[in-house]
Amino acid sequence: MQPSDMSAVDLVTAVRHGDLTALRATEAFLERIERLDGQINAFLSVDREGALRTAAAIDEKRKKGQPLGPLAGLPVAVKDALCTFDQPTTCASKMLAGFRPPYDAEVVARLRAADAVIVGKTNMDEFAMGGSNENSAFGPVHNPWDLTRAPGGSSGGSAACVAADMAPVAIGSDTGGSIRQPAGLCGITGLKPTYGRVSRRGLVAFASSLDQIGPMARSAGDCALLLETIAGHDPGDATSLESPVPPYGADLDRPLEGVRIGRVPAHFGAGLCPEVAHAVEEAFAAFRAAGATIIDIDMPHADAGVATYYLIAPCEASSNLARYDGAHYGHRAEPGRLHPAEPGGHRAEPGKGSGASGGGFESALVEMYCRSRAEGFGPEVKRRIMLGTYALSAGYYDAYYAKALKVRRLIRQDYLDAFEKVDLIGGPVSATAAFKLGEKSGDPLAMYLVDLYTVCTNLAGVGGISFPCGFTKGGLPIGFQLQAPALAEPLLLRATDRYQHLTDWHRRRPAIAARPR
Amino acid sequence: MTATLTAAVPFTTVIGLEVHVQLQTRTKLFCGCATTFGAAPNTQVCPTCLGLPGSLPVMNRTAFELAVRAALALGCKIAPFTKWDRKNYFYPDLPKGYQISQFDLPFSSQGALEVVDPKGALTRNVRITRVHLEEDAGKSMHDETAGTGDTRIDLNRAGTPLCEIVSEPDLRSPQEARAWLNELKLLLVYLGVSDCNMQEGSLRVDANVNLHIPCDGGRIAKTPIVEIKNMNSFRSVERALVYESARQYEEWQATKAEMGKTPKQTRGWDDPAGVTRAQRHKEESSDYRYFPEPDLVPVTVSEEWLAATREAMGDPPSVLREALAATWKIPPYDADVLVNQGRELVSYFEDLAGRVGEGKVASNWMQQDVLRTLNERGGSIDDFPVRPAAVADIIGRVAKGDFDTSRAREIFAEVLASGRTVDDVVASMGIAAVDDDELISLCRELLAANPRVVADVQGGKEQAAAGLIGQAKKKNPNVNPGKVRAMCLELIRQM
Ligand SMILES: [Zn+2]
């Protein structure tokens, strides 16, 4: 069996038992990246040498009888929004082209400590803003199931590289659906954990109160393996939860008898593609067959989810992205000479004594800011910065941001009420299967609606998982989403694993992945 | 323009102060970087205070505790729930593009700090609007050399914990403002909240000032409020306010402009020139787009924790003044002088007073000898070489009549200069108690040599005996003047 055909769980077992070397496993995936990624563009950087060096060191460790980490020899692709001290971290933005952070994200550090092999950094929508991966400054990712289609976003590179077997597992981040939606469109399994379950330290922030890192893999079992390593309290992230990490893989095969899954009739409205609706209903039937009870429930404020999300996320983003101003790092406009002459400049902050002495400095400074940001950010990022800046401005704050916070509380309450009646909420991930590259890129509003089924999970801070539940007639994967109360990841993974035990959608590979050498 | 105001000024100066103090923590407010002053630029930084992508803040619990201590001492209400907010603006010394501060839910509000007007017994209660915590920005240094106009940024200070204390406009004169600042500083230093070193930027003051001018018909005209910045000492604050009051009065006489018709003006204090100068109008256009900081969790404060903090914080100066006066039976003036020198000096005094047993004597020695020489030498009382035991020893020997106070001062000076013990110094100076036989023969000698004095005393002018004391000291520096006088009078009476 080729390493690229093995599950992550089997792969680490094989390495631990000496049936497979970490080097061989790493080489196998690097080969596939070399062969396939020219067409897919899932990676922004591949650290071939570093990965081989790490793999060799793990094999050496094993030979010496030293203890191996739980992910020993497992190649992992990491979304380029997570800081890696030895590889560039660009967030797919010209603003951070070539930027090398001086530190590892907490999740990356945990992966390394677990003896995982980081093979490269994956493509994404710029600063994680988008649902198609077309907002990357370094070109879009192509969906392995149909290269003319989008893989979804923003973790499109992570989803596509797993779908095309260029990595057995990948790390993504999910602010409004950025793990689940591309997982759905690429036919893989992706988990957005409860807010605070995985440390955000070193994840380049998009919207701090919504961002969450999670595993993307071919199966629930592989997601569980990865989650067990990356989850857990981090004193360096004030929003990280202190609750202990359970063994996520331990309880997967317990039957679903007695589990209540909520179904929201409103999900099946006019916007939902009939093929998707059919596959999703079939999945509910499969869960029923597996012993679960399906109960129709109401989420009264779900309608306001997208509007609420597109206020809160841009507001936080407008502030989070203020640091990219050309002054300290990242892209700086080189105007030849920023003329320090004219007075009349404007220091933006009046409250301090150590201010500038001359207006000339200030006008040159403002010019540098404006040009650096104009050149460094792409149009979607600028759009959201403007949206957020507007919504936080004096006179608009109450009407937009403050109101959005109120609706967010209502949405959260919807979930609390729902989880009184059910253990999980099921439904579609996206209204359609993968759309064509360019199909929605001219229409930001249409693009925002791709998040319809996923944003409320983030607004409520609970967990969600997406996995394949069928294919369109055209051969594109269709995703199913489960959502669970805070910290109910074991149940999310168990339900998905039980479903995957009964079905083989998650085993299907795109033609490009199966193409013989 | 004359900047001198007399008590007869035809207006009331209304002043409110905004004070930023740097908290005395080892590390910054949201990261583990040191806060040591004077380190080489950009050596006390990390991803968090550099605002690097992906970095996150974690609140420094000690900073919060120090700030709460200050607020408690100022009689503020402590909010059971407080949150952090982002104040957004662009500037190179603000690497994140926002400052983490507190906007609508500061951790404390509604306190007060009394000040005694320096001119008299009037005590003024100055209300505190709010006290909140925030992080400092870095420092921009504009390099004017070679006409490049380069700006260098030092981020060592970025993220340093600052406590902002905002008063109501309750102060009524520049002198009172200065006195209030002194009292505030003393309080914060006592509580170990801040070293309040203005030179190192640990304490910064902005003042809001305007005038209330009585007009015909009992109407009060209020001049536009001006915010004064860039004052780098309490003396500058007083001078700036004196200047600004006079300037506003002149302007009012010329324009009759009143508050509310123009936006608040900001003026910078030019210390060498002794004037305030208008800065650009900015307030009206600035919008900081405050919103809750999503990277930090709100802070909840329990009653138990507050009680423990209150317990641990020690007495504020106002309480200590009263306690000292009552315990050691010293006048309020003495207690004030001692307390204003800081907690260490008070400890020294209490040690000394305890050994001497007489508060007033100890207080006199503190003020006339210890404090005077300490001020001449500089340094802290803890490093002062003459410890309370030695001073008490000297005072005790004076009480026993071994030598007089002026001799004692010489001994004190010599102990201080030489670092030797009191015994050593007394011995080396040839100071030995003069016994009665010695004293009698010395006095006899003096009377024999001064028949005129003897005659005067016998004629009823006892004060003439004073002339003998100087001569006695010349013959034997160890004699006690009081004893010489008494002995001479006794011998004359026996004649
Ligand atoms: Zn730091």
Describe the overall structure.
The complex is a heterodimer of chains A (517) and B (495). Chain A is α/β, with parallel strands linked by helices and 517 residues long. Among the domains of chain A are: 3-257 and 489-511, Amidase signature (AS) enzymes (Alpha-Beta Complex), CATH 3.90.1300; 325-376, no CATH class. Chain A has 16 helices and 11 strands. Chain A is globular, with a radius of gyration of 23 Å. Chain A starts with 7 loop residues before the first helix and ends with a helix. Mean pLDDT of chain A is 93; it is low at 338-358. Chain B is of the alpha+beta class. Chain B folds into 3 domains: 12-303, no CATH class; 315-428, no CATH class; 436-493, Arc Repressor Mutant, subunit A (Orthogonal Bundle). Chain B contains 16 helices and 17 strands. Chain B has helices at residues 47-50, 61-73, 174-190, 234-255, 303-312, 317-328, 332-340, 343-356, 359-377, 388-400, 405-418, 422-428, 436-449, 451-458, 466-475, 481-494, and strands at residues 12-22, 77-78, 81-82, 85-88, 98-101, 108-116, 123-135, 139-143, 150-154, 161-167, 203-214, 220-222, 226-231, 265-270, 275-278, 291-292, 299-300. In chain B, strands 1, 2, 6, 7, 10, 11, 12, 13, 14 and 15 form a 10-stranded mixed β-sheet that branches. Mean pLDDT of chain B is 89; it is low at 1-6. The interface between A and B is large, with 60 and 47 residues. The structure holds zinc ion (ZN). Zinc ion is lined by residues 28, 31, 33, 45-46, 48-49, 159 of chain B.
The CATH topology label of the domain at 3-257 and 489-511 in chain A is Amidase signature (AS) enzymes
Strand order of the largest sheet of chain A: 1-3-2-4-6-5-10-11-9-7-8
Q: Mean pLDDT of chain A, nearest integer? A: 93
| N-to-C series of helices and strands of chain A | HHEHEHEHEHEEHEHEHHHHEHHEEHH
Question: How far apart lie the N and C ends of chain A?
Answer: 15 Å
Give me the Rg of chain A, rounded: 23 Å
